[in-house]
Specification:
The structure holds two protein chains of two kinds. By secondary structure, chain A is α+β, with helices and mostly antiparallel strands. In chain A, 21% of the residues lie in helices and 34% in strands. Chain A is built from nine helices and 21 strands. Chain A has helices at residues 8-13, 33-42, 62-69, 118-129, 152-159, 164-167, 203-212, 220-229, 266-274, and strands at residues 17-21, 24-29, 45-48, 53-58, 83-89, 95-105, 108-113, 135-138, 142-148, 175-178, 181-184, 193-199, 216-217, 280-286, 297-300, 303-313, 318-325, 334-339, 342-349, 354-355, 358-359. A six-stranded mixed sheet of chain A has the order 10-11-12-9-3-13. In chain A, strand 20 (354-355) and strand 21 form a beta hairpin. Chain A starts with 7 loop residues before the first helix and ends with a strand. By secondary structure, chain B is an alpha+beta fold. Chain B has helices at residues 30-36, 82-86, 90-93, 117-125; strands at residues 8-9, 14-18, 24-28, 39-43, 50-51, 56-62, 66-70, 75-80, 101-105. In chain B, strands 1-2-3-9-8-5 form a six-stranded antiparallel sheet. Chain B has a three-stranded antiparallel sheet with strand order 4-6-7. In chain B, a hairpin with a 5-residue loop joins strand 2 (14-18) and strand 3 (24-28). Chain B is globular and about 35 Å long. Chain B starts with 7 loop residues before the first strand and ends with a helix. The chains are: A alpha+beta, B alpha+beta. At the A-B interface, loops of A face strand 4 of B.
Chain lengths: 361, 126
């Protein structure tokens, strides 16, 4: 069933070009994707991310449940509002989804999952929750807006001055409740900013006030090039159930430190780590003219690899990609990418191309 | 929709203009550039290339996707727009000014087989 967010009419009014994304009618752009991209890198832009699903987890065993459910360890979260990025894994280590979990108290967390996987995630979580004293509540009554860019927070406070006291002290990856809103200093662009969750009924008026404060509406197109420049994975493209986090650039999110913690997928990943031939997940910068795209073959001295995400980088003005490559390939290597009938030259880099408006390559 | 009446069109959203010297100039329509979004790369055929009708002979890449361009007629490529290669965004700015390549048709009468503006308008509306 095709769904619409509470901001659908706002997108139409702003001449958003609507596409079907994971069965949601979402704006891909409002004119120029590249201009929207630059607005986020240079000033402030915002995205409707209401298609993503918030889940409230509560109950006496919430922490124990999440320590079993997630590959990252929520025991690290001790400051109220602090957030953690984690994969949700199958027993075999395949990635069911990636998500952000916010800690309020050891008996109350919020989890935000991707739109396309929301139903699958909820079913999996409910199955795993059977042995724990917890309850999971989907929050489709919320809308979410990501306000991103070097001026994002200032412009947000211009629109909502009363929220400044509650949100000014937030460090990156921390959230605070303000009235019935959640204001989180998180994002998916490599820039500073907030992601806010507000009641769906208030969404359109919040959006309007943010526009009036000079924040530019941006579509999913710009969201994709921004996250790619930031070297952030996209679920379903860079990893899925057939791939594990260790070969998807997500080793840093799998926490083996507490030997007594048994999380789903741990055994499979521990076995995988013992193998020598793990593939590496790195960035590519195209040296020749053209555009790298997902599924193109990469030819390296160590064998063949594959691009998982590729596009044109508006900030760098050249094409970049994320790729899964044979073990032994390292940043600095020169490789070739099969683009139609040609082999184009590309350089291997660490998979983070742009942060805070600056090139890292 | 911007569909000039003096041009011919294809089902695959190319426009074709008959020049006084017997050659034809080819580009993509305004509707096509809008659907593609920001164009960032053009791969255009070398002059001298012989193409069959419907043959893939150029690629227009936007941030979003790569799109093949098909030869609207059989014939020989005689020129390509080097300025547009250097400034792919010019196709977004004016799709009818930023032409892609020019051909000498093998059979100039084939031009009459292409769509007129009214017929293309129906294609673009689909």
């Amino acid at each position: 069933m095709i769904q619409r967010t509470p901001l659908y009419d706002s997108h139409l009014a702003a001449h958003g070009r609507i596409v079907n994304f994971a069965d949601w009618e979402m704006p891909i752009n409002y004119g120029s994707q590249i201009e929207e991209h630059h607005a986020v890198r240079q000033d402030a832009g915002m995205f409707d991310v209401s298609h993503m699903l918030s889940l409230d987890l509560s109950g006496g065993e919430s922490q124990a449940f999440l320590r079993h459910l997630l590959a990252n360890d929520v025991a690290k979260l001790t400051v109220p509002g602090k957030a953690l990025y984690s994969c949700l894994l199958q027993e075999d280590g395949g990635v069911i989804d990636d998500l952000i979990v916010y800690f309020f108290t050891p008996t109350h967390y919020r989890i935000v999952v991707n739109a396309g996987t929301a139903e699958k995630d909820l079913g999996w979580m409910q199955l795993q929750a059977a042995d724990y004293a917890v309850s999971l509540k989907p929050r489709r009554d919320l809308a979410m807006i990501a306000v991103q860019g070097p001026q994002a927070r200032e412009r947000f406070w211009t629109a909502f001055p009363a929220s400044r006291a509650a949100s000014a002290a937030l460090v990156p990856f921390q959230a605070a409740e303000w009235n019935d809103w959640l204001i989180a200093r998180t994002g998916y662009t490599g820039e500073d900013g907030f992601e806010i969750a507000v009641p769906a009924t208030a969404a359109a008026s919040v959006w309007e006030k943010l526009v009036a404060a000079g924040i530019r509406p941006c579509g999913l197109g710009a969201r994709d090039t921004l996250r790619l420049e930031a070297g952030m994975n996209l679920y379903g493209q860079d990893m899925d159930e057939t791939q594990n986090p260790l070969e998807s650039g997500l080793t840093w999110t799998v926490d083996f430190k507490d030997a007594s913690r048994d999380f789903i997928g741990k055994r499979a990943l521990a076995e995988l780590r013992e193998r020598s031939a793990l593939r590496v997940f790195l960035g590519l910068v195209l040296l020749d003219k053209g555009v790298l795209r997902a599924h193109q073959k990469v030819v390296t001295a160590q064998g063949a690899g594959e691009i998982t995400s590729g596009s044109f980088s508006p900030t760098l003005n050249q094409s970049i990609a994320l790729a899964r490559l044979p073990g032994g390939v390292a940043p600095g290597d020169l490789v070739e990418v099969a683009v139609r009938d040609k082999l184009l030259r590309a350089k291997v880099v660490k998979p983070s191309f742009v942060r805070h408006g600056k090139s890292l390559i | 929709m911007n569909i000039p009446a003096d041009l011919k069109y294809t089902q695959s959203h190319e426009w074709v203009k008959q020049e006084a010297d017997g050659t034809v100039t080819i580009g993509i329509t305004d509707h096509a550039q809008e659907a593609l979004g920001d164009i960032v790369f053009l791969e255009l055929p070398e002059p001298g290339l012989m193409v069959k009708v419907g043959e893939e002979c150029a690629v227009v890449e936007s941030v979003k996707a790569a799109s093949d361009i098909y030869a609207p007629l059989a014939g020989e490529v005689v020129a390509r727009n080097e300025e547009a290669i250097g400034a792919p965004e010019s196709v977004n700015q004016n799709a009818y000014a930023a032409w892609l390549f020019r051909m000498k048709p093998a059979n100039p009468a084939d031009l009459s087989l292409l769509l007129d503006a009214a017929a293309y308008e129906k294609v673009a509306a689909e």
